[in-house]
Amino acid sequence: MNTTESTIHFAAQAAQSLFAQIEPDIAAQVAPFVERLFTAFANGDTFIYITQEDADKLIHCTPIVGTDSSSPIVLQNRRLFLARNWQLERELAQQIQRLSANIIPRQPENIADKLRTWFTDAGSRDQQAAAALALIKNFVLISGGPGTGKTTTVAKLLALLCDETLPRIALIAPTGKAAARLSEALRRAIAQIPMLPENVAAHLNALNGQTVHRLLGLTPPQMQPEFHATHRLPLDIVLVDEASMLDNHLFLQLLLALPDTCRVILLGDANQLPSVGAGAILAALSHQQEMQPKTLAQLSALLPEREDWGIVSEQYARLTLSHRFDAESGIGCLANKVLSGCLDAWEAFAQFPEELKIKQNHIATLVHKLYVQHNDYWQAIETHNVQAAFAAQNRLIVLTALRQDAQKVNETYRQLLQHHARVRPEASWYAGQMLMITRNAPTQKLYNGDVGIVMQPENFDGLVACFADEQHGFRTVPLSRLPEHETAFAMTVHKSQGSEYDAVWFIAPQHSIASRALLYTAITRAKKQFSYWGDAASFQAACDNLETRRTALAMFL
Fold first, then answer.
1. Is residue 265 over pLDDT 80?
2. CA distance 280 to 336
3. Given phi > 0 = left and psi -120 to 50 = alpha, else beta, which region is 341?
4. Rounded mean pLDDT of 176-185?
5. Spatial strand order in the sheet of 356-359
6. For residue 327, is pLDDT > 70?
7. Are 492 and 400 in contact, with CB atoms under 8 Å apart?
8. Which residues pair with residue 468 across a beta bridge?
9. What is the spatial distance between Cα 345 and Cα 543, in angstroms, rounded to a whole number?
10. Partners of 506 in beta bridges
11. CB within 8 Å of 102: residues ≥ 6 apart
12. How far is CA 294 from the centre of its chain?
């Protein structure tokens, strides 16, 4: 039994012991379902399906089983929940409905003209429709794969929403790296908007991305938010990037802290991996009801000449045209084939041999090739060039499905570095070590997902950790002040979300099957080249493995 399994077993046993104290006979009847519920929760599901026969028996198992959160286990039809999960998704739906209900104030008179003139580029019709929907809706999801123009769309959208009174805006993402990327991408997009008033450009350029934890004031160890339902954030607009990474609990904390009038704009890729924690928010929001006649009338009033609103529904816009990966792109072709579960997806590797590579899954070989590919990186470390080191770090990453595979690559790489005298055997840290923060530390301004590099500054005997900084380029942190972290020459696909690299090497798991969403997420982290370290059988098995989370959020909505 591994650590995760033992934790689940311990939690289930503790719950069962408590139930036995309340009602021993009923606890015995409920016992077969308790560990299933905890296992499902650990896998990201919020409920389990049971047979009708079991449901008919459990409905009489009061007070342990009930129809609302007054009981520790909730039964609804054939869905069985831990009460905490049932209540959380119910509250989450209520908060989405609260924020969706706000009546949008009258739009500036020239807003339709700007919608027309700012979205005239070839391939921007989908972006125009998404922006129009977000203008008339207080809560909206804009989803699309890499290069579909999500950031361009929201940059223009935010500019459209800036009138005489400049709105109070927060840019947030689940990780520090994703937040920094959002700020950079937004500034690039703002610079391309024609005839943008200087005060609006200055207002938008002054925005800095931050993590959700930082916005809410969530600090360890208590992790109680500074902003909440009775002390809400003074904001008019919240833009959330990489929203697929938000779990139910964190998303609820965010929504509770927003005033009724705050616009919520979610960006993400509904096809990517869901959050590490329980829930699948984008999946729920992207399967909402069809557009209502009133919404269509509002959109038509805004852009009367437009007839095609096919990419939008009631609160959801789907961007489908990628400006990065066209029909001649190997990465785009492979990603689309994986998404659709095509049986010929593997053939894309032969069609695009320069962009797509197949490698034998052998860790020692991979690590040796990685060291050769890192030649520029190690030169930057030797010359104390922080900027060059970070640039090289972004060129190539090794991704894995399983954490133990990432650990194995990092350990093997360290052994190779010892062989090349770059690491002393007893050293805790060494120059050139890539790090990823795994625990939020607001006092150090470091957050889960931040990536750093250990450097030895010129004319300095010791080592420091360097992290990207929007204002100064880079900043240093004493190693003794680092929060929990791990070596990150290789990392899991989950931890890579919100990041992009020139090249990605994905290691197929040898004793389990990756999911379609995980494989798609790995492929779309790459901008120029993707290498699959595995065989055709494991690749096709991942394409066929359409894992879907069991979550009731869509039902509650």
1. yes
2. 21
3. left
4. 86
5. 356-359, 526-533, 501-507, 396-400, 490-492
6. no
7. yes
8. 474
9. 8
10. 399, 532
11. 138, 260, 261
12. 32
Residue 13 has pLDDT above 80, yes or no: yes
Q: Answer yes or no: is pLDDT of 344 > 70.
A: yes
Answer whether residue 162 shows pLDDT above 60. yes
**Which amino acid belongs to residue 478?**
P
Question: How far apart, in Å, are the Cα atoms of 518 and each of 271, 306, 506?
Answer: 9, 37, 10
Other Cβ atoms less than 10 A from the Cβ of 431: the count is 19
Measured between alpha carbons, how far is 306 from 440 in angstroms, rounded to an integer? 46
356 SS3 class: strand
CA angle 367, 368, 371 (to 5 degrees): 85
**Lookup: tokens for 64:** 């342990």
E strand or H helix that includes residue 38? helix 24-42
- The percent of the chain in helix, strand and coil, each rounded to the nearest 5, is 45, 15, 40
Q: What is the rounded distance in angstroms from the CA atom of residue 115 to the CA atom of residue 407? A: 49
Q: Is 276 helix (H, G, I), strand (E, B) or coil?
A: coil
Residue 210, phi then psi, degrees to nearest 5: -145, 165
Phi, psi (deg, nearest 5) at residue 270: -65, -15
DSSP secondary structure string for all residues of 48-63: EE--HHHHHHHTT-TT
Beta bridge partners of 193: none
294: which 2 tokens? 């009133």
DSSP H helices, 473-552, are 493-496, 516-523, 536-544
With H, G, I as helix, E, B as strand and everything else as coil, classify residue 337. Answer: helix
Query: pLDDT (tens digit, 9 = 90+) per residue, 426-446?
Result: 888 999 999 999 888 878 888
Place of tokens 């929007």: 470
**Among 238, 282, 239, CA closest to 258:** 238
- Taking the alpha carbons of 461, 465, 466, 471 in that order, is the dihedral positive or negative? negative
Higher pLDDT, 94 or 162: 94
Alpha-carbon span 196 to 432, nearest angstrom: 43
β-pairing, 490-492 vs 396-400, is parallel
> Residue 265: what are its φ and ψ, rounded to 5°?
-120, 115
HEC states along 149-210?
Answer: CHHHHHHHHHHHHCCCCCCCEEEEECCHHHHHHHHHHHHHHHCCCCCCCHHHHHHHHCCCCE
Using an 8 Å Cβ cutoff, are 131 and 140 in contact? no
Please provide the distance, in angstroms rounded to a whole number, between the alpha carbons at the two ends of the chain.
Answer: 38
> Count of CB atoms within 10 A of residue 168's CB?
12
User: Token pair of 182, please?
Assistant: 């959002």
Residue 121: predicted pLDDT: 81
